[in-house]
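Structure ticket #2291
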Amino acid sequence: MDRRLTHLPPGPDPRPGREPQVAVIALGSNEGDRGEMLHAAAERLRRLPLVDGFVMSEPIETVAVRVDGPDPDAPPYLNAVALMTTRLAPSVLLGMLHAVEEEQGRVRAERWGDRTLDLDLIAYGEFRSDEPHLQVPHPRAAERLFVLEPWLSVDPEAVLPGHGRVDALVRRLKSSSADEAGDR
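Resolution: structure written out below.
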């Protein structure tokens, strides 16, 4: 080993630092011990590299949603939302979310099927991507009370990029649900 290099002053980091961003992660489970699944996932997410802050909503129980709509006959979900301050790139974070799902026994056999754990990247600061493998903000987040309400509980000032304030989105969805119920 060349000992002369150890006496040089440190130079600039060749990997420029990414500014911390708040990532919004939706967590859901409708198989196995759902509460333990969400707790274990939260603990794993807290320990990801380059994560400086983490807060998670209380879980709420919701009806499973399938491709063709709500399915009251399917096992119900426990859903929560976590806010994570991170310097991980969005694509790297998404890859780590998929790895945590796999660690918790997630099998991707059926789209929108039952699952031990579902982790969705809902938003990442103001970042936007329409790439098939990285859609941020999540394309259906503005339509999902089971994402918006828990998010609002941990961040009353939350904004979904491209859609506006989360509290306004919740009011709009609840109003349209009430209108539809009145039409029956």
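Closing remark: The first helix runs from residue 34 to 46.
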